[in-house]
Amino acid sequence: MNVSCGECHNNGLRGPGFDQRMVMVEADGVTRAADQSPIQYGNEIRARMIAGATIPVTPPGLPNVKVTIRTPPAIVGRGSIEAVLDSEIQRVAAKALQAAAPDHPWDATDPAVPMMEAAWIDARHAYEHVEGATAPVVPDIDISIDGRVEDFGPGTGTGTLTATSDMFTADGMSGLHAVERVLYASVTPLAVVTYEDGLGYAPPQAYPKTQQDVSEMNDAAVLCGLPTFTE
Prior knowledge:
By secondary structure, the chain is mostly helical. It contains eight helices and two strands; from the N terminus they run E-E-H-H-H-H-H-H-H-H.
């Protein structure tokens, strides 16, 4: 437990502090286990104690515990975040990606890919700066921009994604991670591919192989769940 805000947000920026979370996983090291009972007091690790506390919250000594590190968001300008329209954040991100996208079928060898990757990284970083404030308030918009495969699947997700969904439109999945599944199709770790295959409702990752794929992706779609933006 940090005793001051500055330990995580020095000068209102990211760090130097960090947060650690824990989860019980299956044998593949990725899938969240159904049984989380060994983690008794929540998934946030609290190794330090204040106010007379005597029992830290630490990971159980089991081989199937996965611990991740979270860096804190910058809090500069949080008081004025309401002045920035969600639609404007989406518009800027979508336009950068649309401008970099080729108008022809492409794969990892296309010269436009590095520009698309740079635009995607810029858009991802931009949204990370505000998602801590927007996600709890407007979760539907957060999912449309930053949702993972599971957020669009059946059960706890929106239910729009199926194994036959067209991944080049926003009908099944939209947002930055929908673009990521296309843009980084050839370098996605095998563990991720295997995990998504096992879900049963995620179409395979692929590049746009036809002109129709290209038109769908560039016109609407996965870029942020919004129509094409024009001046």
